[in-house]
Amino acid sequence: MAVKIRLARKGRKKLAYYHIVVADSRSPRDGRYIEKIGTYNPITNPATIELDFDKAMGWLQNGAIPTDTCRAILSYKGVLIKKHLLEGVKKGAFDEAEANRRFEAWLKEHDAKVEAKKSGLEKSYNDEMENRLAIEKGINEERAARIAKRNAELAAQAKAETEETASGESAAEATAEEATTAEEPASEAAAEEVATDEVAEGKTEDAGEEQAPVAEDTASEETPDEKPQE
């Protein structure tokens, strides 16, 4: 029976993660498996890998064949280089202590590269966020400037309308005052004419009344002179 180290898909659409399993090569991809030895999440950056190092090493030494993706995962975690060093010990190229020393040196270098990558990703993320904030700040400042300009234009327009209304009211008041001023002399002249007419009529009536008794007196005086002649 051929045994493979492969991935079994889990999760949902566009949010998939994988189990690293040891299974019969004849089983379906997401079917039954012999043992689960880790997980792999490619969504994160860098990818999140959890692996049981000793179990993976044991299955490799027993003849399990990893798929291409699982081989890359095992290489990333140092399983393949550890297997290679142990084979060198078996062949007598070096002893186990030297193999462990070389593996530790490789592991430190690998961890340093991983940390450098994480730092670079974090720095690039921070730079990107700063750029976005700067762009957003510029957009907000431009929007605020447009709003301030529009408010200033509206204020100037309102002020102009207020001044125009005030000037119109002032002109109307001035016109009304001029009309009132022009009407007052005319009314005074009319009043004077009426008073003059009334005075003239009064004098005429007084003259008529004064002349009437004179006539009566003349008549009364002439009548006694006529009686003795008869």
What is the topological layout?
Elements: E1 3-12, E2 15-24, E3 35-41, E4 48-51, H1 53-61, E5 65-66, H2 68-77, H3 79-91, H4 96-229
Parallel strand pairs: 1-5
Antiparallel strand pairs: 1-2, 2-3, 3-4
Helix pairs in contact: 1-3, 3-4
CATH topology of the largest domain: S16 Ribosomal Protein, Chain: A
From N to C, what is the helix and strand string?
A: EEEEHEHHH
**Average pLDDT reading:** 80
Integer count of domains: 2
Question: Strands of the largest sheet, in order across it?
Answer: 4-3-2-1-5
Distance between the termini: 194 Å
Overview of this structure, please?
With 230 residues, this protein is of the alpha+beta class. It contains 4 helices and 5 strands; from the N terminus they run ββββαβααα. The protein has helices spanning 53-61, 68-77, 79-91, 96-229, and strands spanning 3-12, 15-24, 35-41, 48-51, 65-66. A hairpin with a 2-residue loop joins strand 1 and strand 2. It is rod-shaped and about 155 Å long. The N and C termini lie far apart (194 Å).
Summarize the structure.
The protein is 72% helix and 14% strand.
Write out key terms for the chains shown.
single chain; 230 residues; alpha+beta; S16 Ribosomal Protein, Chain: A; 2 domains; five-stranded mixed β-sheet; 5 strands; 14% strand; disordered C terminus
